[in-house]
Write a structure and sequence with these properties.
Blueprint lengths: L2 H28 L3 H4 L3 H20 L4 H25 L10 H23 L3 H5 L5 H27 L6 H26 L1
Helix pairs in contact: 1-3, 3-4, 3-5, 4-5, 4-7, 4-8, 7-8
């Protein structure tokens, strides 16, 4: 097994074991999940998953490092959307609610930090970076989507304070979902203009 594959297998295994322990084993041990016992564990888990997603994209799918980091961002936006729906449809303790403003934003930053750490680690394995392939259209899509999230953060922050510090999760979900086809349309228009 090559070093880069060992690192990826090791970090992925650590994350899976941590997930199982935090969500289920600690529930048996302490009568509640570890999120409720020590909330910062969520930051460690997000960091590790950002690292893992980055490594999967770089090592397995052979994406360029920047594309892999953008992939971590896209994954996190999808994850936040699912968590918003989960908060609505699933009965759970108060400490498990994950509002985008500002917990989800913090989670996104921590995920990207994990991906950036993965990039730093992979600099020791030049073949992982040199054998990667660029995602020309994919990169354009992900960058365009990321730019589309910026107005959400600005508008959502204003709405958050106007609503008395209540996270505008419905706005966030609709925005993140609607931004997918809007980004596709923008990318198609840009590619036609370039031709």
């Amino acid at each position: 097994m090559k070093g880069k594959h060992f690192i990826m297998a090791f970090t992925l295994t650590c994350s899976i074991v941590l997930e199982v322990w935090v969500r289920w084993i600690s529930l048996e041990q302490y009568g509640r999940d570890f999120f409720g016992i020590w909330p910062p564990i969520d930051n460690i888990m997000h960091f590790m998953w950002g690292l893992n997603i980055f490594l999967i994209l770089l090592v397995w799918l052979k994406w360029k490092p920047l594309d892999s980091l953008l992939g971590v961002f896209m994954w996190q936006m999808m994850w936040e959307s699912v968590e918003i729906i989960g908060d609505i449809v699933q009965a759970q303790p108060q400490h498990m609610f994950d509002h985008f403003f500002f917990d989800g934003i913090k989670d996104t930053i921590v995920d990207i930090a994990g991906g950036a750490f993965g990039w730093l680690i992979m600099k020791s394995f030049p073949d992982a970076i040199n054998n990667s392939k660029p995602l020309t259209e994919g990169r354009t899509y992900m960058v365009t989507y990321a730019y589309g999230v910026v107005p959400l953060i600005l508008i959502g922050t204003v709405v958050y304070f106007i609503n008395g510090k209540v996270s505008p999760d419905t706005l966030t979900f609709i925005w993140l979902l609607a931004l997918l086809p809007v980004t596709q349309i923008i990318c198609k228009i840009r590619s036609k203009i370039k031709k």
